[in-house]
Design a protein that fits this description.
The structure is a homodimer of 197-residue chains.
Chain A: H1 8-25, H2 35-42, H3 46-52, H4 56-79, H5 88-101, H6 103-109, H7 117-124, H8 127-137, H9 143-166, H10 173-186
Helix pairs in contact in A: 1-2, 4-5, 5-10, 7-9, 8-9, 9-10
Chain A binds a DNA duplex (30 and 30 nucleotides) through residues 2-4, 7-10, 13, 34-37, 44-48, 50-51, 54-55.
Chain lengths: 197, 197
DNA sequence: AACTAAAACAACACTATGTTCATTATTTTT
DNA sequence: AAAAATAATGAACATAGTGTTGTTTTAGTT
């Protein structure tokens, strides 16, 4: 069994590249980052970059993949909780906590005008599970309604995430999770603590 | 007064560029479109491109700006309806209809994994108006709650839009508008026609 | 110590970029 | 209809980035 991926040199190199990458991304959009520039800042040879990645977008994908794997690992015990209804607030809180832990990457991919496809992937991870549950709970809802509902709430959660990041993560993960739950379940109605119409 | 922008030649050139651009975008992501390639497909000289745009992203911005102006013009009578509560369903339907009319651009910017910043701009257009209204309607809601609510529902609507596009625009604008309204107002609760818990 | 693999280094052909300038074609003004 | 203005073309240019290859140096593994 090769140990190539665990080579100390490789880990160091990849860490240097990742650090340079996220640093540059704070100041300019990904489309104007050149490999040459990245390597100069990371202080590695350009050939070394090609040893690990094909281009800038491959680099982004691989970094995202790493975080995605981390998320899956963190959520594994929850997913395996079986058919007993899991504590959704706990689940959501864990998700948001995990995202907060990876703030350096998320601040780029989720930030104001960043690319949201990664966030969509994260949310989509729970898609099948949710659709199934909703289908059981709301028997009169058509599959189409459930699909559109999921499309709405998953994107809505991303919007919530972005605002959270834009505000500097000052709200606690638990609070955000609670807000997400309320918004998904009751929509605007959750503001209606005092109004009857 | 110069009439440069109304020059027939300019309009033809820009139309050629736009057509080539949206055509290419259907097959490959924007980051791998080169100016050279675009000009070859548009059958214009590369220098001519630089006469109107600085780069590919400037081109995208200008095209988006055009549609945005069109939307504003379409919504103008609605916005000017004054303090009388406008018919929200009508407003929403009009918005979705307008988007459908510009499907060729939207299918790219709103499509599955496209860039959502443009859609955010569209939605943000109504932001101030909404925040004001919600503030009046829900006096016990904190400004923070309203901000997060808006972040949630605006992104949610974009998700709805994307699903709409991915499904090939088979649902009518009025149906989508109704769904958006229900989801914003009641969240998951709108599926609860038959369930009491 | 010997072996293995990563990283650095240098060189290469190739493509795209952005700019310029003279020329041609088209529109607008007079 | 002629003259003036401006858009588009085409060619040339320096510059920069890309992707690849082969060799040498360095660090890790056995």
């Amino acid at each position: 069994m090769k140990t190539s991926k665990n080579d100390h040199r490789t880990r160091v190199t990849k860490a240097l590249i990742r650090k340079a990458f996220t640093t540059i991304l704070r100041n300019k959009p990904i489309q104007s980052i050149s490999i040459k520039e990245l390597c100069e800042i990371a202080e590695i040879n350009r050939s070394t970059f090609y040893l690990h990645y094909t281009d800038i977008y491959d680099l982004l994908n691989q970094i995202e993949e790493e975080m995605f794997e981390g998320l899956k690992a963190a959520l594994k015990p929850v997913v395996e909780s079986g058919d007993g209804t899991p504590n959704y607030l706990t689940v959501t809180t864990e998700i948001f906590q995990c995202i907060k832990d990876n703030a350096d990457l998320c601040i780029v991919t989720l930030g104001s005008y960043g690319d949201k496809s990664f966030a969509m992937r994260l949310i989509d991870y729970g898609r099948t599970l949710c659709i199934e549950n909703y289908g059981k709970l709301y028997k009169n809802a058509t599959p189409q309604q459930i699909e559109y509902f999921y499309a709405f709430v998953s994107s809505g959660c991303i919007g919530l995430l972005q605002k959270w990041f834009d505000d500097g993560l000052v709200v606690t993960p638990a609070e955000i999770a609670s807000m997400a739950e309320n918004l998904m379940l009751y929509g605007l109605g959750f503001l209606e603590k005092d109004k009857r119409q």
